[in-house]
Amino acid sequence: MKNEAEDVQAWMEYVEPYEGESISHYFGRLRREEANSVSAPTTLSEAAGIGPALSRWEKFRFNPFPSPKELEAMGKLVGLTVEQLRAMLPAQGERLVMRSMRLCGECYRESPYHRIDWQYESTEGCEKHRLRLISRCPACDEKFALPVEWVEGACKRCGMKFTSMAKRQKPY
Fold first, then answer.
1. What is the pTM of this model?
2. Which residues is 131 bridged to in the sheet?
3. Nearest-5° Cα angle at 1, 42 to 34
4. 58 and 11 within one domain
5. Nearest CA to 147 among 82, 100, 92?
6. C-alpha–C-alpha distance, residues 127 and 157, integer Å
């Protein structure tokens, strides 16, 4: 008889993480992958045997911080190494901005995914594009949703594309 982890693995298509991608964005993208039929974080968490941990991680709640055992169990389930998963988490000693999600519209235009370092309190702006990070839609002032929910890459309220927001960002 197959166990739950084997059942979930049979439904899963491997998804390569992007460099610097946040764990929230990655798992949203993984679950939306056309070949994957797992829509809830609890299904993955339970199949990995780590309780509700993934739901917390997708909301950037890392208290307690993911243990090596949890990362190993989740990595085995989705085909990633502990190091790949750890790269999607905040670096040691980095505090996160929790009141809102942040992004650089120009980075998102070049590669449409959420970077974990955008959430660091120590990150004031995008070093590459010399733009301040934004946390609200410049058109309607709506806070950005969690990256796990970034299906269209646009504001959930007015639909303004993240890719067009760079022209509204202030210089850094």
1. 0.92
2. 126, 171
3. 45
4. yes
5. 100
6. 29
Range of the domain at 60: 4-86
Q: How many domains does the chain have?
A: 2
What distance in Å separates the CA atoms of residue 141 and residue 164, rounded to the nearest whole number? 15
Question: pLDDT digit string (tens) for 85-138?
Answer: 999 999 999 999 999 999 999 999 999 999 999 999 999 899 999 999 999 999
Task: Clarify whether residues 79 and 149 are in a common domain.
Answer: no
> CA-CA distances (angstroms) from residue 48 to 6, 52, 74, 76, 79?
10, 10, 5, 8, 12
CA distance 113 to 20: 9
Residue 164 backbone dihedrals phi, psi, to 5 degrees: -95, 0
- H-helix segments, 61-157: 68-78, 82-86, 105-110
Buried/exposed code over 110-143 (b: 16+ C-beta within 10 A; e: otherwise): eeebbbbbbbbeebebbeebebebbeebbeeeee
On whether both 68 and 115 belong to a single domain, the answer is: no
